[in-house]
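Entry 14. Structure prediction run on the chain below.
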Amino acid sequence: MDISIIVPLYNEAESLPKLYEWIARVMKENKFSYEVIFVNDGSTDDSWQVIEDLNKADDKHVHAISFRRNYGKSAALYCGFKAAKGDVVITMDADLQDSPDEIPELFKMIKEEGFDLVSGWKKKRYDNKFTKNIPSKLFNATARKVTGIKLHDMNCGLKAYRNEVVKNIEVFSEMHRYIPYLAKNAGFTKIGEKVVQHRKREFGTSKFGLNRFVNGYLDLMTLWFLNKFGKQPMHFFGLIGSLMFMLGFIAIIVVGAMKLYALYHGHHAMLVANNPYFHLSILSMVLGCMLFLAGFLGELIIRNSQSRNDYLIAKEI
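Output returned:
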C-alpha cells in the first residue's frame, strides 16, 4: 500500500464528508493505493455516525478507531500509527485547514528524495494574529533552539513519514507537538519541510486554547531532559548533588575555622549552632546527598530494566 492517511478528530462531523471526498479525489487522480484511518477522539457530536456512513460507502479505504472518551491528539496519533500499513504515512487535521492537494508532493519527498519525515510549514496563516500567530512564532523559535531542528512550524498537523519512523517512536502525553524531535532522538535525522497551504476553518470552532503554549514549553523541557539525561540520570543528579555537598562541606570548614580563630585570639564568637551559615551548610550537604542518591537509584532502575529492545536496529545480516 502506498499511503496511510491518519485523521485525528474531535467533534468534526460537518467537515468529514467533504474532507474524505477531497482525499479520495486526490488519491484517484494520482493512482495511489491508500487507506484513510479516522481516529475519533471521544467526539460528542455525530462524528462517529458520519464515519460509519463513509465506511459503508467505501469500506476498502475507510478505516476507523473510536475512543470511549477524549484522550487527546497524542493518543489518537499513537493508535493511528500502530494501525497504519502504508509505505508513507500522512497525518492531517479534520477541520479542512490542511489541504489534501499537498499529499502527492509530500509522498514524493519521502519516496524519491529520501526524507524520513517532512513537516508542513503554514507560511501564510489565517489565524488570529495575537492569540495564535505571535505565540506560535515564539514557541517555534524556542523549539528550534532547544531541539536543533530547523523547522518553522514544528506543530503543523500536516506531516509525512516513512512507515519505519511511526513504528519506532512513541507519542505520549501531549508530545505530538514534538514528533520531529522524537524522530530525531530515535535516529531518523533526515527531516525536511514543505510550505503548505493554510485554509480558513469552514465548520466548528478551534479546540486549542492559549494554555497549549504553556504546556508546550513544559513538554519541550521534559523531552530535552529525558533525551539528555534519561539514560544517565547520575550525570545530572550526581553532578549537582556532589557540587552542593562540597559547597556545604567547605562552608562548614570555614565556619569552624572562624570559630577557632576567634577563640584563639580571645574574641567573642557566637556558638556554631547559632550561626545561620552552619545550618545552611548542613542543609546543602543533606540536599547534595539526597540528589546523589536519586541519581544512583535512577541508574540502578535503568540498568535493571534496560533490554535490547531499547535500541533501534537499522540492519542485520
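The chain is about 50% helix and 10% strand.
Filed with the rest of this week's runs.
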